[in-house]
Amino acid sequence: MTKERRTYEDACGMAHALDLLGERWALIVLRELMLGPKRFSELRTDIPGISANVLTQRLEGLEETGLLVRRKLPPPSNAQVYQLTEWGYEVEPIGQALGRWATRSPLHDPTAPISAVSVLLSFRTMLNAARAEGLDARIGFRFGAYSYLGHLTPEDFPIARGDDAGADVTFAGDPRALAGAVYGGVPLAALEAAGALAVSGDRALAERFLTLFPLPPKIG
User: Fold this and answer.
1) Which of 51, 64, 79, 119 is most buried as measured by Cβ atoms within 10 A of its Cβ?
2) What is the DSSP code (8-state) at residue 217?
3) What's the predicted TM-score (pTM) here?
């Protein structure tokens, strides 16, 4: 059983949203499940700052509030995974709004550790429709044991975990290196030479991809 949940005892919708999501690590756990279910061990790896005990508490609390469910994978795996409910997936635009708002802070450190899912969700958040005009492409990503395939258009960039076969271009390697290329202006050639990133497929598309996600200006 999880410990008794704290509440703001306030009928405001924002206050109740904080009742549901305001516990430390809750939004981060939901973020890591946005692109597909994960095992407990995968969540521990992808959220290195959280302890096993706290992760257990957050998963139980998010399950109690209806934001995620536990299920078993079919044989031969039979492993237990955590998966967002339909309502849980509706948290994404909240995270996008917070992300766009917070990156304007001069205290934001873009060099801090970042997970593969966080990098990919940031692309969905920061996609600039004008810069992506005319694009209709499949973008693949391989980060360690995980593969993803996204369908990039000016209107949207849905990304799903799974086989990246059929991608027009694929980025493979360290997600932090890809973030550095997109948000830090690090040249692809330098990352490739360092062994941090590999690019296969349409090279011109790869270079254009890096320009599609401008960050909002800092305050002040």
Assistant:
1) 119
2) P
3) 0.93
